Amino acid sequence: MNVVGYSRNRTTGATSVLPAVRIVLIYIAMITALVFFLFPYYWMVSAAFKGPGDITAYPPVWVFEPTFDNFRELFQNLGAMKALTNSLIVVGISTCLAIIFGSMAAYALARFEIKGKEILALEILLFRMVPPIVSVIPLFILARKLGIFDTYWILIAIYTSMGLPLAVWVMRVFTQEIPRSIEEAAMIDGCNRLQALIRVTIPLMLPGLVATIVIVFMFAWNEYLFASLLTSSNARTLPVMTAVTIKPRAIAWGVASAAGTLMSLPVVVLAMLVQRYLVRGLTFGVIKG
Amino acid sequence: MSVKLQGLRKEFGSHVAVPDLNLTIEDGEFFVLLGPSGCGKTTTLRMIAGLETPSGGKIEIDGVDVTVAEPRKRDIAMVFQDYGLYPHMRVRDNIAFPLKIRGMDKAAREEKAEEVARRLHIEHLLNRKPPALSGGEKQRVSLARALVRNPKVFLMDEPLSNLDAKLRITMRAEIKRLVSDLKITTIYVTHDQIEAMAMADRIGVMDKGHMIQVDKPTSIYDHPSNIFVAQFIGSPPMNTYRGHLWRSHQLEIAPSFFATFVEPERLQKILHNGSEKKDVVVGVRPEDVQIEAQGPNHFAVGVVELIEPLGQDTYVYLAVDGSEMIAVTKRSNFRVGETVGIRISSDRIHLFNGRSGDAYRI
Predict the structure, then answer these.
(1) Distance of CA B271 to the CA centre of its chain
(2) Which residue among A31, A88, A268, B8 sits deepest, i.e. has the most Cβ atoms within 10 Å of its Cβ?
(3) Contact B319, B259 (CB under 8 A)
(4) How many Cβ atoms from other residues are within 10 Å of residue B274's Cβ?
C-alpha cells in the first residue's frame, strides 16, 4: 500500500498515518485551540494600548501607535493603585488563611477517625451552596454594626469563609490519594507525626496544594458582589473599580481594557510561577509509589 | 528479641476485633499469623507495630513494655502490602531514610544503603524513583529499607499479595533465606496457607479475633485442633462429613465405608461418658485418599465426576455414597464416569466433635 502519508506495520499489518503527518495535524489542532483562547485576551490587551479612534475602527486595526492614556486614566482618576493594593491584600490574606486552615481540616478529615466525620464534611460544603446574594444584606448590616464596613476585615472574613470549603474538599481528595501506608512507614522508620507530615505528606500534597491555591485565589480575585456592596472608597477592590468603566450610557472601551489587563496580570504571573505543579496537580493520579 | 502479647484486646466502636490474645513469639523465630480476611491478624500486627492503640492488654518487645509506645520507639521495621515507598524520593533515599531520620551522616548511610541494595540485587535501581519500578522491585526496595537498620523485630503485612504467582514463590524463598541468615524475629501476616506452611517456624491460626492453634506447620497439618484449622490448612481442603456415633459404637455416616475404616478403639474413647449418641465429624485429607482401579476386594467405591490434571498431581472429584470426596493422586488414567476403588488408612482419618468442632486426639 503506497498511498502517500500512510505507512504499514510489517508485523501486524496495521495501517497508520505517517508520524510526520500526525505531528502536523497535532500542531494545527494546538494552534487552533491557542488562537481560540488567546485571541480575546490579545484583543483586550491591545485595546488597552489603543486610542479611542483605533479601538472602534472597522476593519480592525492590527498595527497602531500605542498610547498609555488608558492606563494613565486608570491610575490617576480611577484610583487603580489603591484598588490593586486592596485586592492584593484582601485576596492574598484570605487565600493564605483558607489554604492553611482548609488543608489542616482536610488532613484531619482524611486521616483521623472522628465521630460524624461525613456530616461535618457535608456541612462544610453546604456552606458554599448558599447563594451569595442571600447573605449580602445581613452581612451589610453586620459590617455596619461592627464598624468594619469598607475595611479590609469584612472582605477578608468573607473571602476566607468562601475559600475554606473549596480548600477543604479539594485537599481532602488529594490527601486521600496519598496511601496511609506511606505515613505509617515514615512513623516506623523514625518520624513522629509532625516529621512524617513535613517530610513525606506535604511534599506529596504540594501539587494539589498549588492547584487549590490557584482556584481559591482566582475565585476571590474576581469576586464582585460582596466587594461592590460592602466597600466604598476605602477598601474598593479591582473588580469594583473596573465596573465603573462600564456605564449604561457608554462603555469606556480603552479604560475597561486597561483595567482588565491590570486585573489579569497577577493571576497570569501566579499561574506561570506554579505551572509545573499545576499540571501535576490537575492530573490526580500522581501517587503510584 | 521475643515478643509477648498478654490479654491483648482491640475494639473498633462496638465491634470487637480482638477480644483476648495471648501469645509469645520466640527470639529469632519466623512466626506467621494466618487466617481468613477479618480474623484480626492485621489488627494484631498493627498493634505490635504501634499503628493501632490496644483497647486493653500488654505488649512486650524484648522484655520492655511497649503497649503505648510510638512506633519509632519500638525498634521495629515493617513491610507493607502496598510497599509504602516514598514516591518522591529515589530508591537510595528511600532505603537510607530510616538512617537519615536517626541522624546518621550522609557517607555512612549511603554506604549502608548500597550494601543492603547489593544484598537484595537492586544496586542498579538506586537512582530510580518508585513509580518507575515493577512490583517485585518495589518489594525488594521495601525489604531493603526494613533491613538497613537491623531492627529487633521484622513485621510483614501480606507483602507478597500484590505480586503475580510466579514472583510470589521466588520472593517467598528469598525472604525466608534473608531473614534466617540475619536471625531476626519476624512476624508475618498472610491469608495464604501455602505461604504460611512454606515459611513459618510456627503458625498461629486465627479466626474472628481468636488464636485457634499455635504450632509448627507439620504439626498443624497432621494434627489440626479443630475443624476450622483442618479445613483452612491444606489444599485442596480436607474432606469432612457429619455423622452420628451411637452408644452401640455404630458410626452412622455417609459415606458409610468410614464406619469400616475407623478403628473401633477410637470410637470407644469418644463415647466414654456413656451418652446416647454424639455428633461427630469425620475428616480425611484428599492426599490420604488412595484410589485404584476397581477390583473385587474393594468395598469402598466412588464414581469419578471431574478430573483436574495439574501437572504433577491430579485432583479427582468423586461421588461417593451421595457425598462428594476429593482425592489427590499422581498422574493416572482415570476417566469421568469410571468407578474406582477407595482405600483410606485408619490413622489418616481425623475425628472431630460435631458440636464444638474440636478434634479428638485419639
Answers:
(1) 33
(2) B8
(3) no
(4) 6
* Residue pLDDT, tens place only, A231-273: 888 888 888 888 877 777 777 888 888 888 888 988 888 888 8
- The residue type of A143 is A
Q: What is the ipTM of this complex?
A: 0.81
Q: Using an 8 Å Cβ cutoff, are B8 and B54 in contact? A: yes
Superfamily of domain A79-281: MetI-like (1.10.3720.10)
CB B32 within 8 A of CB B233: no
How far is residue A33 from each of residues A15, A36, A41, measured CA to CA in Å?
28, 5, 13
Q: Does B31 contact A at CB distance below 8 Å?
A: no
In chain B, where the domains are located: 3-232, 239-353
The closest alpha carbon to A255, from A266, A247, A265, A245, belongs to A245
Q: What is the pTM of this model?
A: 0.78
SS3 sequence of B127-174: CCCHHHCCHHHHHHHHHHHHHCCCCCEEEEECCCCCCCHHHHHHHHHH
Tell me the CA end-to-end span of chain B in Å, nearest whole number.
Answer: 37
Q: CA angle, A199 as apex, A198 and A201 as ends, to 5°?
A: 70
Q: Least CB-CB distance to B70: which of A185, A192, A287?
A: A192
Asked if omega into B264 is within 30° of 0 (cis), the reply is no
Task: Please say if the pLDDT value at position B221 is more than 90.
Answer: yes
Amino acid symbol at B335: R
Mean pLDDT of B185-207: 93
> Among B48, B93, B97, which would you mutate to test the A interface (most chain A Cβ atoms within 10 Å of its Cβ)?
B97
Q: Using the 8-state DSSP alphabet, how is residue B123 labeled?
A: G
Please state the φ and ψ torsions of residue A26, each to the nearest 5 degrees. Answer: -60, -45
Contact A189/B97, CB-based, under 8 Å?
yes
**CA–CA separation, B154 vs B151, rounded Å?**
7
Residue A90 main-chain phi, psi, to 5 deg: -65, -50
Note whether B116 contacts A: Cβ–Cβ < 8 A.
no
Distance, CA of B197 to CA of B233 (rounded, Å): 8
CA-closest candidate to residue A254, choices A263, A262, A243, A245:
A245
Question: Domain locations in chain A?
Answer: 1-43, 79-281
B3-232: CATH topology: Rossmann fold (3.40.50)
pLDDT at A288: 47
User: A176 CB contacts (<8 Å, ≥6 apart)?
Assistant: A110
Give the dihedral of Cα atoms B251, B254, B259, B262; nearest 10 deg: -100
Yes or no, beta carbons of A184 and B88 under 8 Å apart:
no
Cα separation, B73 vs B60, whole angstroms: 13
The superfamily CATH assigns to domain B239-353 is Nucleic acid-binding proteins (2.40.50.140)
